């Protein structure tokens, strides 16, 4: 569910380069949209309906850039506790040689949290 606002992602989307070429492209770190580069920030938003048992993994490119979607899915499948899953994703990113920040947040949706959200209330359980 991520959109990478980088030159390389745009090249991928337009079919100008392959996934393999993107991994080593010399402009893979060049962003065309980021926080702090101008006074007004354009933010991507979307609505996602969550159900009990769903989990969200939010991470920075220091993790996303070195671990595949499959590897991140394996971490979520192997570690039920959000804290443990977060720690393992960071550990794996570090072991894979990330040269960037490695930050991960795993959010687990439980029955009470989902019910509160569906009733229009915020919940601290999420």
Tell me about this structure.
Mean pLDDT is 85; it is low at 122-126. It is built from 6 helices and 2 strands. The chain has 2 domains: 1-44, no CATH class; 55-118, no CATH class. The longest helix is centred in the C-terminal third of the chain and has 14 residues, at 82-95. By secondary structure, it is mainly alpha-helical.
Order of helices and strands: HHEHHHEH
N/C terminus separation: 19 Å
Q: Biggest sheet, strands in spatial order?
A: 1-2
Query: What characteristic shape results from the CA principal axes?
Result: globular
Q: How would you state the average pLDDT, rounded?
A: 85
Which key terms come to mind for this protein?
126 residues; mainly alpha; 2 domains; two-stranded antiparallel sheet; 6 helices; 2 strands; 39% helix
């Amino acid at each position: 569910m991520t959109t990478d606002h980088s030159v390389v992602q745009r090249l991928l989307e337009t079919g100008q380069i392959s996934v393999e070429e993107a991994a080593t492209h010399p402009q893979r770190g060049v962003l065309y949209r980021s926080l702090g580069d101008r006074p007004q920030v354009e933010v991507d938003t979307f609505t996602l309906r969550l159900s009990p048992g769903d989990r969200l993994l939010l991470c920075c490119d220091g993790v996303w850039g070195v671990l595949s979607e499959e590897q991140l899915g394996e971490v979520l499948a192997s570690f039920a506790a959000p804290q443990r899953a977060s720690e393992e994703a960071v550990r794996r990113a570090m072991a894979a040689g990330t040269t960037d920040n490695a930050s991960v947040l795993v959010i687990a949706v439980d029955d009470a949290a989902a019910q509160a959200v569906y009733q229009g209330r915020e919940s601290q359980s999420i």
